[in-house]
Amino acid sequence: MKVAILGTRGIPNRYGGFERFAEELSQELSKRGYTVYVTSPAAHSCKELNANNIFTVNLRVPRFLTSNLATLYYDYISLKWAIRNNVDAVIECGHSFAPLLLFISASIRGKIITNPDGIEHKRKKWGWIAKSYLRFSEYFAFKLSAQLVCDNRALVQYYSTRYKRKLHYIPYGAHPLMQAPGRPDVLDMLHINEYYLLITRITPENNVETVLSYFAHSDQSCLVVGDLTSGYAKKIVGKYSHFRNIHFLGAIYDQQILNGLRFYCKAYIHGHSAGGTNPSLLEAMACGCFIIAHDNPFNRDILGEQGLYFNNIATLGNCISQFEKLNNVEVNRVKEQNIQAIERNFLWEKVALAYIDVIERLKK
């Protein structure tokens, strides 16, 4: 059976959550006999992958298009490729493609599984034109997709109330650490023993500035891992890089290094607020991190009571003060409970089996 995963920037992951999802799900599906195709815009660097029934499909996107137009064009040629190659199921990451479903047959729409991600039109990075389009595309995704998957129960509640459709809850996954990783060299180069950690895409809705505003007036060290090439990221670096306790490490995609940074941090700070489940939260839990998360129903759905929550600079300070007062027994108890939650609810193997169930429903 042929499955196409569309809407990401390709694999291996060099960008974010959907790419991590595509990377892991394609591997799990291939183990179970599926042939998986993952599209990638050719303008982005992506290794050729042709192993274990996983294939990357590099599609050329003209460089002269603006970012938003390039996304729409990429959506179009990706879906066109899937139709032309007669795949059996299409997993769409995001819903910006959805207006295209108006112009394709019901038999093709019957192959579409859409994961809408978070509530896209609420992200602070979008202007009013983009937000209007995202509301428009969200509507058609929920009206015309054969199956819909949400990675967070708070999203299921939001969307099922809004569109009166049956939705499937399938979270993302993570791999629990089997043994303690090596201490990353970067920590020795920075002469750091104790630090708080953020691994994030540096965008407004991920509350990076809120977090760094606190550390700018703290003597605690904070490490930030994330791509620094966007305009907003450059603004954040310019504003906070002169603080000696704030360290920008740039984008890191090596899982061993990332796991080492997570494992040795004092606590992991998760600022995502725009909805859905981000794999970085699950991966922090899988590494046994104590987590301080932005207070919203999406993060609470995953983390529950095994962490602390903030919504501004003052409450973040309260969380860190509260954390610093905990003894080792209390901290280790929470860390172990986070690992157990991953083993119980968020293994990639279970994620794949749930997606296979949805794929099989397309035949009915």
Secondary structure layout plus pairing:
Elements: E1 2-6, H1 17-31, E2 35-41, E3 50-51, E4 54-59, H2 67-84, E5 89-93, H3 106-109, E6 112-115, H4 128-144, E7 147-150, H5 153-163, E8 168-169, H6 185-189, E9 196-199, H7 208-215, E10 222-225, H8 231-240, E11 246-250, H9 255-264, E12 267-270, H10 279-286, E13 291-294, H11 297-303, E14 308-310, H12 313-325, H13 328-345, H14 348-361
Parallel strand pairs: 1-2, 1-5, 2-4, 5-6, 6-7, 7-8, 9-10, 9-12, 10-11, 12-13, 13-14
Antiparallel strand pairs: 3-4
Helix pairs in contact: 1-14, 7-12
CATH architectural arrangement of the largest domain: 3-Layer(aba) Sandwich
- Helix/strand order: EHEEEHEHEHEHEHEHEHEHEHEHEHHH
Taking all Cα atoms into account, the compactness measure Rg is 20 Å
User: Terminal Cα separation, in Å?
Assistant: 15 Å
Strand order of the largest sheet: 3-4-2-1-5-6-7-8
Number of helices: 14
Query: What's the rounded overall pLDDT mean?
Result: 93
Q: CATH-wise, what's the superfamily of the largest domain? A: Glycogen Phosphorylase B
Q: Domains counted in the coordinates: how many?
A: 2
Give the CATH level 1 class of the largest domain: Alpha Beta
**In the CATH scheme, what's the topology name of the largest domain?**
Rossmann fold
User: In percent terms, what proportion of residues is strand?
Assistant: 15-25%
Helix and strand content put the structural class at alpha/beta
- The amount of helix comes to 40-55%
Low-confidence segments, given as residue ranges, are none
Counting copies of identical and different chains, the oligomeric state is single chain
Overall morphology: globular
